[in-house]
Write a structure and sequence with these properties.
It contains 15 helices and 2 strands. With 391 residues, it is an all-alpha fold. It has one domain. A two-stranded antiparallel ribbon has the order 1-2. Helix 1 packs across helix 12 and helix 5 runs parallel beside helix 13.
Length: 391
C-alpha cells in the first residue's frame, strides 16, 4: 500500500501543469495546519465536570499581548482567500470545457462533502452503538461537542462555493462595485447590530463577511496572474501597493478594535462578551486584507522554493488528504483526551508553567492518532478525486 501511495504521489507531482500556482496549494496546507495545531496545542483542554463535556477555551486572556498574534494566526480567512482563487479558476475552467454549472458543482461539492459525510456517518454509528450497549452513555453531542465546532467552517465555505456563478459574474462585470457593495453590506450589518440592537444582523453578517473575503480571493487571482505576466516580480509601484495594503489593514484594525463593539482578539476569548469570529464581524474582513497583503509579499520567494521537487511533493501529499485532516483532527484530539482521562491524568485548567511544558505532547500525540485516521479514511477523499478525474 505504501509503495502504491508513493507511486500515485509521484505521478501527481510529475503531472503538475506548469501554469499551476503552487503557492495557492501551499497556503491551503498552511491554513489547515495552523487550525489543527491551534486546536491541539493552543487551547486549554480539560473535562468540565459541571458541564459534563470537554472544553477548550483559548488562553488569549491570560497571555499579555497574545491578542495581537490572532491578527495573523486567525487563519480561516486565508482559506477563503485561497478558495476564492481556486473556485474562480475552477469556474472559468468549467465554462471553457463546456461542463458548465453542473460540472463545476459536481467537482467542488464532491471534494468538499464526501469526507464530511463519511465523518458524520461514522460518528452517528459510534453514537448509536454507545447508546445501545453502554449504560448511561450521554451521547457525543453532550461530552464531545468540540468534535463538531469546526464544522461551521464547512457550512460557511459551502455557502460561498454555491454562490460562485453569481459572485464570479459580478467580479467579471464590475469587480470594484461588487466588492464595494459587499463591504457596505458588512458595515451596515454591524451598525445595525450594535447601534440598533438588531442581533439577527450578526448572523446575517456571518454569511456576508465570508462572501466578501472569498471575493478578495478573486482579486488575489487577478493580481497573481498580473505578477506572473510581469515576470514573477513586483514593480516598484506594486511593492508599495502591497506595503500600503498591510499597513492600512493594521491601522484599520487598530481603529476598529479600539471601539467598544469589537474585541482586540480575532478568536473567542474568555471574559469577552463578544467574539469577532462568530457571529462574524467587519474586523475579520480587515484581517483577510492584512493576510492578503502578507501573502502577496511572500508569493515570489515561496514560488521559487516550491520548485524543489521534495518540497512540492510534501505539499501535494498534504493537499491530497486536506479535508480528511480537517474533519478528523478533533477526533484524534478526543481520543488522546479520553485515554488520559481513563488513565486518571489531570490536565491543567489554565495556561500555567505545566501547560506550556506540555505543548509538544499536544502536537505529537494527536498527530500520531490522526495519521492512523488518515490511513483509514483518506481513501474516501482520494476516491472522490479519482472519480472526478475519470469523469
Amino acid at each position: 500500500m505504501r509503495r502504491r501511495w508513493r507511486q500515485r504521489l509521484d505521478t501527481l507531482v510529475d503531472r503538475t501543469p506548469p501554469e499551476r500556482d503552487r503557492y495557492v496549494d501551499l497556503l491551503r496546507v498552511v491554513a489547515i495546519g495552523v487550525v489543527v495545531v491551534w486546536h491541539w496545542s493552543l487551547s486549554v483542554l480539560y473535562y468540565s465536570e459541571s458541564a459534563g463535556r470537554w472544553v477548550m477555551p483559548n488562553p488569549i486572556h491570560a497571555v499579555p499581548g497574545a491578542w495581537a498574534a490572532t491578527w495573523l494566526l486567525q487563519i480561516v480567512p486565508v482559506f477563503f482567500l485561497v478558495g476564492g482563487y481556486a473556485n474562480l479558476a475552477a469556474w472559468q475552467a468549467a465554462r471553457r470545457s463546456g461542463v458548465g454549472l453542473t460540472g463545476y458543482y459536481r467537482s467542488r461539492l464532491r471534494r468538499l462533502l464526501v469526507p464530511v459525510l463519511v465523518f458524520l456517518a461514522v460518528w452517528v454509528g459510534i453514537d448509536l452503538l454507545g447508546l445501545a450497549v453502554v449504560p448511561g452513555y450521554p451521547g457525543v453531542l453532550r461530552y464531545g461537542v468540540i468534535l463538531l465546532t469546526p464544522l461551521w467552517f464547512i457550512a460557511a465555505y459551502l455557502w460561498v462555493v454555491l454562490l460562485v456563478p453569481l459572485t464570479a459574474a459580478g467580479h467579471a462585470r464590475a469587480r470594484w462595485l461588487t466588492v464595494g457593495a459587499l463591504a457596505v453590506a458588512v458595515i451596515a450589518c454591524d451598525v445595525g447590530r450594535f447601534a440598533a440592537d438588531l442581533s439577527v444582523l450578526g448572523w446575517v453578517n456571518s454569511a456576508v463577511v465570508w462572501v466578501l473575503i472569498h471575493q478578495f480571493g478573486y482579486f488575489f487571482r487577478d493580481w497573481s496572474l498580473a505578477q506572473d505576466r510581469a515576470g514573477g516580480r513586483w514593480s516598484a509601484r506594486g511593492r508599495w501597493w502591497v506595503v500600503g495594503l498591510v499597513v492600512g489593514a493594521v491601522l484599520l484594525l487598530a481603529v476598529l478594535t479600539s471601539l467598544p463593539a469589537y474585541p482586540r482578539s480575532m478568536v473567542a476569548t474568555v471574559g469577552q462578551e463578544r467574539s469577532n469570529i462568530f457571529p462574524t464581524t467587519a474586523p475579520i474582513a480587515v484581517v483577510a486584507l492584512l493576510q492578503l497583503g502578507v501573502a502577496m509579499a511572500l508569493r515570489a520567494p515561496a514560488r521559487r522554493w516550491l520548485r524543489r521537487r521534495r518540497v512540492w511533493r510534501l505539499v501535494v501529499a498534504a493537499n491530497a488528504v486536506i479535508m480528511t485532516v480537517f474533519v478528523w483532527h478533533m477526533t484524534a484530539l478526543l481520543v488522546v483526551l479520553a485515554l488520559l482521562r481513563a488513565a486518571g491524568v489531570a490536565l491543567p485548567t489554565r495556561p500555567d508553567a505545566a501547560w506550556w511544558v506540555q505543548r509538544p505532547f499536544w502536537v505529537l500525540a494527536p498527530g500520531v492518532v490522526l495519521l492512523g485516521l488518515i490511513v483509514v479514511f483518506g481513501r474516501f477523499e482520494q476516491g472522490s478525486r479519482r472519480r472526478l478525474a475519470a469523469g
